[in-house]
Amino acid sequence: MGLLDRVLQGDIDEFSPVELAKLYDYDIYELGSAAYSIRESYFDRKVFFNINRHINPTNICADVCKFCAFSASRKNPNPYSMSIDEVVKLCVNAYNNGAKEVHIVAAHHPTHEYQHYLDMFRAVKNAVPQIHIKAMGAAEIDYLTRKFSLPLEQVVNDLIESGVDSLPGGGAEIFDEKVRKTLCHGKANADRWLTIHKLWHKLGKMSNATMLFGHIEERHHRIDHMLRLRSIQTSLEQANNKAGGFNAFIPLLYQRDNNFLKAKEAPTAQEILKTMAIARILLQNIPHLKAYWASLSFNLAIVAQEFGADDMDGTIEYESIQSAAGAKSRNGVSKEEMIFQIKDAGFIPVERDSLYNELHSYKEVS
């Protein structure tokens, strides 16, 4: 029996990341077929999206991550910092335009006070109590604990009390310690990132998980990353934690422009699609696999739905992080265009909320 067959039968724990990396040697259509069968058993031909707004309150950062083109530096000499009122105004406008979620992540600002973050989220909730706040990646939370010498539990509980509903998956990058040291030495390490999400889940909350790939990592590093996430989700299942956990896994394609990382050649579309398919095969205990169109490009994200993905993210409205590094995602995409493109590919567009409750299903193209 071959490796793929054994993995599909559930023998994943019998293999090391290096051994599982041999899945990449399979024909792309064989991997895609296996991954698609899994996504079809979960979601049939549905492709999920939401109406959301990305807001990045500042790009002034205490850290210097080599892969990052967003934070202010000599590669991006345009520092900015929004006031709380400016953030609230953007959230209100987004809600009035139909957004169900605001995704608020920022740089690690060196002078903001701790209370600034809590006041910002409270102000957003007071202005638009119906909107879902997805905010503060694990690296940001870790930064607050270190900068203000606060216990992790206090910071997490303060964020929940101030209105944060779920955590985004950013800051995970690649968990391998040697690769991570080159990418983002100085910010939360892999164990810390995972610890923060485990605590969040323990409190009955949902989060996402990302993986930045296509830079200096090797295939087995991607597999190792996936397996660490799989292990956390398995532990939750064994503890019968029904409330919290990972909603979605999001492989983010590294963008090459305007940063300090001297990366190898960009991965091919085939390599990207194989990575998506392998993620669906290995992470069957994480419900959703997101092909984040702002990172992959819209067309490739649609194709990825045939390779195990079931989600496109959302309309975004305005995007700063990926586009700063060269992605064509600055102005988001309209709801109408999202629906049209999904239908045109033969899928069923399903508008969802942040926790994947279905809000509206659009009729499939005949």
TrEMBL record:
Cofactor annotation: [4Fe-4S] cluster
SUPFAM superfamilies reported for this sequence: Radical SAM enzymes (SSF102114)
Annotated positions binding S-adenosyl-L-methionine: F67, E173
Secretion signal span: none
Name of the molecule in the record: Aminofutalosine synthase MqnE
Residues where [4Fe-4S] cluster binds: C61, C65, C68
Molecular-function annotations in GO: 4 iron, 4 sulfur cluster binding; 7,8-didemethyl-8-hydroxy-5-deazariboflavin synthase activity; metal ion binding; transferase activity, transferring alkyl or aryl (other than methyl) groups
Coiled coil: none
Cofactor remark: Binds 1 [4Fe-4S] cluster. The cluster is coordinated with 3 cysteines and an exchangeable S-adenosyl-L-methionine.
InterPro entries referenced in this protein's UniProt entry, alphabetically: Aldolase_TIM, CofH/MnqC-like_C, F420, FO_synthase_su2, MqnE, rSAM, rSAM_sf
